Give the backbone structure.
Amino acid sequence: MTSPLFQDFNERSKEVSQYFIFLKNLEQESIKLRMEGRGGNPKIKEIAPDLLRTLKASGFLLLYNLVEATMRNAIEAIFDELKNEGISYDLIRPELKKIVLKNLRKRKLNDIHLSITAISIDIITVGFDNQDLFSGNIDARKIKDTAIEYGFSYSTDARKTSNGLDLLSVKTNRNDLAHGFKSFTEVGRDKTADELLVIKSKVIRYLRQILQNIESYLKNREYLDISTVNKAL
């Protein structure tokens, strides 16, 4: 049975893949614009080069959206697990304790005090807000730092994923577009559809392996501080 985390990822990945296949068909001219001419007669029109470049650049937006949504959902899944399992703050690993305290510092007392009934348990999730997680800054380095911070593995098969190297290009192009530093035609002119498909495939494989690492982290309860758990037992 597919976990909710992978179900969402698979659906989003499918949407992105379909778009990039569409781009390839456009570039190869196996897809053309069909317009209604005079008298209602169909008229076939070629795709303008600048329009194709714009569509290619938009692919970076879709890819970055996949990256950020995937990692946000993954971190949220960790906090959901801690909440659902009723894990006490005393039992979680030191790295997570630091995260919990950082989250609390961002919250106002009046916003959270009514949500706390069992402080040792509620303290973990009461300060969590998934909107604080990422904001246009995700690449492989950020994912590695996040993995170290939470205690899950960031290792992937470099032959298939290039260890997420392509995420830097995806992030940079996304930010250039989002902040208006470059036009869509500028960003889209340097890559062929085939090159974009390769980037897309590596990014998806990388994210899938990171999710597998997080699922293993949750399954094996690696969010716990083993020394503290052993003492509790």
Q: What stands out?
A: Residues 4-232 form one domain. The chain has one domain: 4-232. The longest strand covers residues 33-36. Residues 151 and 222 are 7 Å apart (CA to CA).
